Amino acid sequence: MDIRINIERLKRDLEELGRIGRDDHGGVSRPSFSAADLEARGWLKKKIEEAGLCYRQDGAGNQFGRFECAGKTIMAGSHIDTVPNGGMFDGAAGVLAALEAARRIVEEKAPLTKALEIASFTDEEGNLVGDFLGSRAFMGLVDESAVRNGRTSFGVLFSDILKRTGFTAEGILGAHKDRPELEAYVELHIEQGPVLEDEGVSIGIVERIAGKHYRQCAYVGESGHSGTTPLELRHDAFLGLADFALRATQLVATKYYGSVLTVGKAALHPGSFSVIPGRADFTLEFRSSSPEAMAAIEKDVFALAEDIAATRGLTFISKLVDQTAPVTVAPRIVSLIAEECRSLGYPSMKMTSGAGHDAQIIAGACDSGMIFIPSPDGISHSPAERVDWGDLEKGANVLLRTLLRLAK
Amino acid sequence: MDIRINIERLKRDLEELGRIGRDDHGGVSRPSFSAADLEARGWLKKKIEEAGLCYRQDGAGNQFGRFECAGKTIMAGSHIDTVPNGGMFDGAAGVLAALEAARRIVEEKAPLTKALEIASFTDEEGNLVGDFLGSRAFMGLVDESAVRNGRTSFGVLFSDILKRTGFTAEGILGAHKDRPELEAYVELHIEQGPVLEDEGVSIGIVERIAGKHYRQCAYVGESGHSGTTPLELRHDAFLGLADFALRATQLVATKYYGSVLTVGKAALHPGSFSVIPGRADFTLEFRSSSPEAMAAIEKDVFALAEDIAATRGLTFISKLVDQTAPVTVAPRIVSLIAEECRSLGYPSMKMTSGAGHDAQIIAGACDSGMIFIPSPDGISHSPAERVDWGDLEKGANVLLRTLLRLAK
User: Fold this and answer.
1) What are the start-end ranges of the H helices in B140-236?
2) pLDDT per position in chain A (408 positions), as tens?
3) From the CA of B9, how many Å to the nearest CA of chain A?
4) Pick from B246, B266, B267: which is nearest to A243 by CB?
5) How many other C-beta atoms are found inside a 10 Å radius of the C-beta of residue B254?
6) What domains does chain B contain, in order, with CATH numbers?
7) Which of B125, B229, B273 to probe by mutation at the A interface, max A CB count within 10 Å?
8) CB distance B233–A194 less than 8 Å?
């Protein structure tokens, strides 16, 4: 069937949802389980019901709209939570494109042989207790201790948030029991990087999603008076960190081209201009789309960290905070999306997703693929995040046609 | 006259003063103009009066005890304020050794031909609006805008503190008008470093006091998603800082041996594990006892900072916060102290002070010298700060005899 999405309606939906949680800085602040998120959930429920889909919510707060049919389930979705002061497209574009696609399928009474379900996953952005809480709960992969005893990055007990919002640890830990038997999952998302725009291409077909390894690290040395401790007698924890950050970045850039390593946060203690840092706490994150590279980077980087510690008379400590494995998208999904792009006459390119996505978690249960649309100037997680509506129309049409092919 | 100080009385005084502002962490928290400092000021006033000295306080809160005589003034002193959670000797040892010396001179009715005055200077530790507020006010070197509009490092308006404590900006700015005509200033202080202990020597005779240059700096680059921005496209502000800190330290260590450079505090923005730092704020401090080296380090280090910015596509910005010039102690003071050590049979060594002291500020008005006693394990600015009472007795005796020689 040659049906297309209605971009005006999709645009209206995105603009309506984008007003929920609009903050004073011009962005959208809608972290999961915030008041704005609860309002957005109510809005989405109404939209799903209006579309003629059967609404349900699981114990983790994941929201679904189902078009029932015999056979396995074809799922499309993303998330509607945002980072604080984020944009209106990261996640929301994927959920509302899936809603629009399902709505058109319902409107056109397209004949399906498989169930179709759209999904909006809780806390993809990890504002609560780690990334992908909803899709991990959907897969039965949630860390029980984090759910029961964890604190958010703002220091709030997660159990208090659950109490306030009516969700429960048991509900989150049991959410996977409500998962239908999946055949495939497809997620449309903004690229969050500059590649598609640079290449002048509207559709990115994700072949690989990078894995992530995130640790909280520290070098511990000796603090001392900056005026009275000669350079050669110092054990300056910050210089250890500086040395490590430069050499680890260089190592990844030269030996593991395409992988990335980032030190995004650092704090020196005691943190005075006239005291040698006795301790430097920092975050270390590396990502790669190759499982072999992930393992090799981990080995190389921690050997380097220890080597620097030994040379500089410091101690290196680190604790794993989170990790996700790299995912290779099933070739049949990549081919199918590529065929639909060709048949629609949209230029497309195959690419790697450097960012993590729910699709990566759900890849453990079925073939899982992604459709990217360009992020102008590569911007996301920012009030300046935007899309070209023409690109979104193309992306949503590819999603619609891919779902039709999968569920036919 | 062969008179000596009474170490038991000096010890009692130090222990009494050390109980004022004793904090929960076992240290002394007595920043200038705090409640504890005001209590300590009352205690010191009483002690000065009991010693038979004429008490006065100037508009900056500097406290003095004067033994009047015709002729110029010979002054000895230090400070009784502390860093938060500091020790009981940094500063206090110098003030109370000077008090004990003056007290012995009064008791023995030693014949003087010059006035003798002991001094305790406000906020040497710079907890309010920059180091050496009291001695700078005494010299007429206070930054008027800092006094009128400045905020402390805790964000409190200095003018509010003045209002609460009964001091005034006018008083601070006019304090120098009450300065007597000085001939010499001598300050006993703990070394705050490991040298005297390492050498097994009780008395350090300071020949030079290092100057200090303290700047608030930043590298500004571009933030971005850590997963979607390839390493080669990044303008990571933290890597700029890391590169700078390593190379600037290396530069000073190799080209300006004996000088020091420290990055003691850093903050990355936005400061998330998954966002490339778009800005890295940091403190930069360097110290040298040579005016030529200070100027050359400044030139070299800022050329390096700009060079790194250009190479990495960053912007380097910096703002001078504070600086003090290196001071060479008048040779006649160094010789005089050395002679007194010899005549008392105390081993001594000439040395450089890496830390800054009030003596350095007062060097602008007269010959100004310092007597150091060992800091066990080099510790200061800590509850673990301590002295060997035998070393303190020796140091105070050298101070007493030096004052007698100067005022005779």
Assistant:
1) 144-149, 158-165, 169-174, 195-199
2) 689 999 999 999 999 999 999 999 889 999 999 999 999 999 999 999 999 999 999 999 999 999 988 889 999 999 999 998 899 999 999 999 999 999 999 999 999 999 999 999 999 999 999 889 999 999 999 999 999 999 987 789 999 999 999 999 999 999 999 999 999 999 999 999 889 999 999 999 999 999 999 999 999 999 888 998 889 989 999 999 999 999 999 999 999 999 999 999 999 998 988 889 999 999 999 999 999 999 999 999 999 999 999 999 999 999 999 899 999 999 999 999 999 999 999 999 999 999 999 999 999 999 999 999 999 998 888 899 999 999 999 999 999 999 999 998
3) 30
4) B246
5) 9
6) 7-210+326-407 (3.40.630.10), 211-324 (3.30.70.360)
7) B273
8) yes
| Rounded distance between C-alpha atoms, residue A20 and residue A23, angstroms | 9
Q: pTM for the whole thing?
A: 0.85
Residue B130 at interface with chain A, using a CB cutoff of 8 Å: no
Q: Do B239 and A249 touch (CB under 8 A)?
A: yes
Contact list, A288 vs chain B (CB under 8 Å) = none
* B376 part of contact set with chain A, CB < 8 Å: no
Of A258, A263, A356, the CB nearest to B238: A263
Residue in B with minimal Cα distance to A352? B228
A268: contact with B, CB 8 A cutoff:
yes
